[in-house]
Every structure is written in structure tokens, then in C-alpha cells.
């Protein structure tokens, strides 16, 4: 079997309006308010709990972040911590595994 190495580089540029400090609506991200919310719903959050079937057909939840190499950029990490703390908390880059190792890196 050939080894496969996957590295995810997760980054979002700052989207906050400098005058209001909030993210303005981004119509091309519909049905979501903005691209951060859309990508969170389609990528960051689903990767914390991927549903797979085992050999017996039983459904298991699988945290992709625990099995890939990855990094989060600082603007995305700050946004996740503030707006989606449940996803932020499930990132192995931010909490040590039982062995004390992590597969990812969080940059601030």
C-alpha cells in the first residue's frame, strides 16, 4: 500500500468592515451571510464529525483533523474561536491528544 499524506491549509482573509468591525453581507455566499459562515458550514465544522460506516454497517463519527496534517491561519483561528467555539474546541491543533501529540498547528 502506498502512503498518502494530506495537508490542509485553512485560511480566511480578514473580512470585517474596518468601520463597523463586523462582516458585511456577501451576496455571493448565499444562502449564508458571508463566506466565513459558508465555508464553516461546508468545510471546517463537517471535518470535525465525518460520518462513516464500519465493516458491520454501523455509523461512526470521524474527526478528520485528528488524522491529517494541517494549519489554521491567525485570522481564521480568531474568527472560529469567537464565532464558532464548538468547532474551535474540536480542533486537535488546539488540544493535545492522549499521547500529547497533535497533527496540526495553530498560528497566532
Explain what this protein looks like in three dimensions.
This protein has 108 residues and is an alpha/beta fold. Helix content is 23%, strand content 18%. The chain is built from three helices and five strands; from the N terminus they run βαβββααβ. It is elongated. The model is unreliable at 95-102 (pLDDT under 50).
The total strand number stands at 5
The main sheet orders its strands as 1-4-5
| Uncertain regions spanning at least 5 consecutive residues | 95-102
Radius of gyration: 16 Å
Silhouette: elongated
Number of helices: 3
Structural class: alpha/beta
**Percent helix among the residues?**
10-25%
Q: Short description, anyone?
A:
By secondary structure, the chain is of the alpha/beta class. Helices cover 23% and strands 18% of the residues.
Question: What are the key terms here?
Answer:
108 residues; alpha/beta; 3-stranded parallel beta sheet; 3 helices; 5 strands; 23% helix; elongated
Secondary-structure map:
Elements: E1 7-10, H1 35-44, E2 50-53, E3 59-62, E4 69-72, H2 74-83, H3 85-89, E5 104-106
Parallel strand pairs: 1-4, 4-5
Antiparallel strand pairs: 2-3
